[in-house]
Structures are given as C-alpha cells and as structure tokens.
C-alpha cells in the first residue's frame, strides 16, 4: 500500500523522471502535489503498470492533483550537462512551476540538488512507496511516450513508437544502418564496440 505523505509538511510534492536510459529523445520529469483526501486504486510505480493502465490513470491524476507540471530536457542539453544533471534539472524545473509552492520535496532515486531552498528527501524505489512519486512517474512516462510516438512519425525506421528510444537490438540495428538523428544523444554509447568498427563503412 502506497503512503500519501513522507514528511510532516503541509504541502509536499513528489517528483520522478522517465527516459534516463534511452539513446534517443528527451528525459522527461513530472512533479505532483496531491490533496489530503487523494485516493486512486490502480496507482503504482509506472514500471509496474501496463501502458493501458498508465493511459487510464493519467487524466485521473491530472484531475485529482492540486497541481502538477511536466518538463522535457532535450538531447543537446543532455549531451552538454550529462544525463544525471539533466534528470535533476528536469525535476527542478517542474518544482519551480508548481503553484502552490511546495514546503517539502520527495524525489525518486538517490540523487538530487536543492531547488529554491526547499527541504527534500531522496527515496530509493520511492515510486512504489509514495503516491505523489507514483503519480509523477505515470505522468513523466505517459508524456514522454507521447513525445516518442510523435517523433516516430518523422523517423519511423527507428521504431520509437515501440522501443521509445531505449537501446533495443532493433534500435541499435537502425542506428547502424541509418546513422543518428537530431533526437539521438551523442554522448551516449549508441552502439556496442563490435559494431562501431563498421559504423562508417
């Protein structure tokens, strides 16, 4: 059973990101503040849910939340500041857009940097422990998937509609065959070593 709150503070936000391990597309974060009487039966860590369930939950979360915000950080920024910093920046940007301003932040994972002097805690596997982080994980995942489906139309050969930019065999084969796009993260190891030898042939 997921808990509503971690801290004693009145207004607490949960934040999470999606797409950190992908070769293409943005890293997407969400932050959510839930009301005291929030209940949503199916809500859990987005990785434990089917795509159908996540799509069903998203409008319910948006409707019931006190407020929420979603941010994408594009590949060129990821390449510039690295994926960890990009993930943290995405979460920070979401938090600064929330109204009311949260008194406390709970973050999925083990790394974060202060934002606007708001106290925070990092919680490993927080998305399977706290409702606000689970809600943020569902929003981040569904918004990012929607983005990947959209850019799939532009470059269908990578099949982002299915792999969402993750390093599947099919995705890597397409990189080897067609090269990379503006949506690929150039600082990532896009191909395993044995394929890099014939990359330019």
Automatic annotation (TrEMBL):
Reaction(s) catalysed by this chain's protein: Endonucleolytic cleavage to 5'-phosphomonoester
GO biological process, one term: mismatch repair
Entries under Pfam families matching the protein: RNase_HII
Signal peptide, first to last residue: none
Residue ranges occupied by any RNase H type-2 domain in the UniProt entry: 10-200
Cofactor: record remark: Manganese or magnesium. Binds 1 divalent metal ion per monomer in the absence of substrate. May bind a second metal ion after substrate binding.
EC code(s) of this entry: 3.1.26.4
Keywords: Cytoplasm, Endonuclease, Hydrolase, Manganese, Metal-binding, Nuclease
GO CC term, one of those recorded: cytoplasm
PANTHER family linked to this entry: RIBONUCLEASE H2 SUBUNIT A, RIBONUCLEASE HII
Name of the protein in question: Ribonuclease HII
Lineage, opening ranks: Bacteria, Pseudomonadati, Bacteroidota, Flavobacteriia, Flavobacteriales
This protein's encoding gene: rnhB
